[in-house]
Write a structure and sequence with these properties.
It is a single chain. By secondary structure, this protein is mostly helical. The chain has 2 domains: 11-51; 59-117, 434 Repressor (Amino-terminal Domain). The protein has 7 helices and no strands. It has helices at residues 11-24, 32-51, 59-70, 78-81, 84-91, 99-109, 113-117.
Length: 118
């Protein structure tokens, strides 16, 4: 395959780039193919962000969904957010998550930071 020298604009170009990524995926670090791989991944990410944007996810909704998945109650969030009044304020959208809360929830509930930051 010839080297990609422009942004991905069509689904056909996207498929061709994905095939090339698969071909060079295990290229040794520092090799020309490794550098090409890095560039192709950036191009694919840009194309996917534009073509298939992810919806904005509400952090509180994400926390609530994860709580249901893990069968957690509000009390289970207290070690990460604070006492029950803080948990209540956050889940009722009367208080924002702090950076420390986001970090703790990210680890404890395995939620992406991007989701928790909102």
């Amino acid at each position: 395959m010839e080297t990609i020298q422009k942004l991905i604009e069509t689904e056909q170009e996207y498929e061709a780039v994905m095939e090339r990524i698969e071909e060079i995926f295990h290229a040794p670090l520092g090799s020309p193919e490794s550098d090409e791989l890095k560039l192709l991944v950036v191009l694919v990410q840009k194309y996917e962000e534009e073509k298939y944007p992810l919806p904005n996810v509400d952090p509180v909704e994400a926390i609530e969904v994860r709580m249901q998945e893990l069968a957690h109650s509000r009390k289970d969030l207290e070690p990460y957010l604070g006492d029950k009044s803080v948990v209540s304020k956050i889940l009722n959208r009367k208080r924002e998550l702090t950076l420390d809360m986001i970090r703790r929830l990210h680890v404890a509930l395995r939620l992406p930071m991007e989701v928790l930051v909102g």
